[in-house]
Structure to design on (377 residues):
């Protein structure tokens, strides 16, 4: 199975939560449109790119790392690149003779219905209200499945890491597999009240020092904790368990990790209270054994190789294809002349849309005619 990152690169909305971003997919563009790229014999329209932007934003947790902001131009470019890759993959799938059976598409559609708790007739009705049809939507699903399959076929088995590779990675990056030391601690604690008086704190310190004296005289730590500690660990004899670095207050951590086995600390304060702690056990730091991290290393190396293979393969597809991009290009003189015909183009597109809305032509026919008009524009 391909890693999630690669799956995301080739397939977007087979089973995602149903939303307007799906309905506004590649075949459902606005009336006024223009060609922003060509991939061999196929065109990509501005409405397709904008729809992809909407889809990326709806699935932002997968496409964009947390905290990273992108401009509209960057999102448009990312979307266009993704669409170009999808078209190249689908074209490659057709070249290889891959076939997507109708039953496979129906299964994918059923999955969409189930995940979004709607029936097939409800879905068709929603499409119809938007002026679209099921056949066009299925075409999107068909191409996505085809893209996914050709990627699976191309990369299957191409990224299996050898044991030598994994062992080498372990030895070179051994410090990544270091497990820091831990300590097991018990405590006797007097809790500070947030709005308490300084005199109250002094009394708690005095009481803690009396208890420390008893401990120094040989009294049992657990018994004294049960009797005097105000912490929830008191009934347990003061046992608070394993303490790892970075998981508690700095002052508490400093004292805890400087104690020897069975050593009892002096009285000390933190923002939470007055403490006496004892080191019950020291768990030494150690490197994880290779056998413990072998599967983790394999997954990481396999993913890295697969991602590299995918990138190389897509580079080859792009280099061997005819790709023309003019998403952000300034209009040339020739394109400026074309602009003068914009009103005629818009009129033709409105006419085609009217024919489709009045069910004089199918949505599929509308899309074909629309592409013809845009190619000439």
């Amino acid at each position: 199975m391909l890693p999630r990152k690669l799956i995301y690169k080739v397939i977007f909305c087979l089973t995602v939560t149903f939303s307007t971003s799906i309905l506004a997919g590649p075949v459902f563009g606005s009336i006024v449109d223009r060609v922003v790229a060509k991939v061999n014999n196929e065109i990509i329209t501005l409405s397709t790119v904008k729809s992809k932007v909407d889809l990326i934003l709806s699935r932002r947790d997968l496409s964009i790392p947390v905290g990273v902001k992108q401009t509209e131009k960057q999102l448009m470019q990312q979307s266009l690149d993704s669409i170009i890759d999808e078209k190249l993959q689908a074209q490659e799938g057709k070249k290889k003779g891959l076939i997507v059976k109708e039953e496979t598409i129906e299964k994918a559609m059923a999955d969409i219905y189930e995940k979004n708790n709607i029936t097939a007739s409800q879905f068709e009705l929603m499409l119809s209200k938007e002026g679209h049809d099921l056949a066009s939507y299925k075409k999107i699903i068909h191409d996505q499945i085809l893209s996914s399959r050709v990627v699976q076929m191309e990369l299957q088995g191409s990224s299996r890491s050898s044991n030598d590779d994994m062992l080498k990675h372990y030895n070179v990056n051994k410090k990544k597999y270091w497990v820091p030391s831990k300590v097991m601690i018990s405590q006797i604690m007097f809790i500070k009240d947030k709005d308490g008086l300084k005199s109250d704190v002094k009394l708690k310190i005095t009481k803690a020092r009396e208890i420390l004296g008893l401990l120094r005289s040989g009294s049992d730590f657990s018994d004294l904790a049960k009797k005097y500690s105000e912490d929830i660990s008191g009934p347990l004899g003061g046992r608070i368990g394993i303490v790892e670095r970075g998981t508690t207050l700095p002052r508490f951590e400093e004292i805890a990790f400087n104690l020897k086995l069975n050593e009892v600390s002096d009285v000390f304060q933190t923002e939470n209270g007055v403490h006496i702690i004892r080191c019950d056990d020291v768990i030494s730091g150690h490197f994880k054994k290779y056998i413990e991290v072998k599967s983790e290393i394999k997954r990481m190396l396999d993913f890295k190789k697969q991602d590299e293979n995918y990138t190389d393969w897509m580079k080859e597809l792009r280099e061997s294809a005819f790709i023309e991009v003019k998403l952000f290009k300034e209009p040339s003189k020739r394109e400026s002349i074309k602009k003068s015909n914009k009103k005629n183009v818009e009129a033709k597109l409105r006419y085609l849309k009217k024919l489709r809305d009045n069910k004089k032509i199918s949505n599929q026919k509308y899309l074909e005619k629309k592409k013809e008009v845009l190619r000439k524009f």
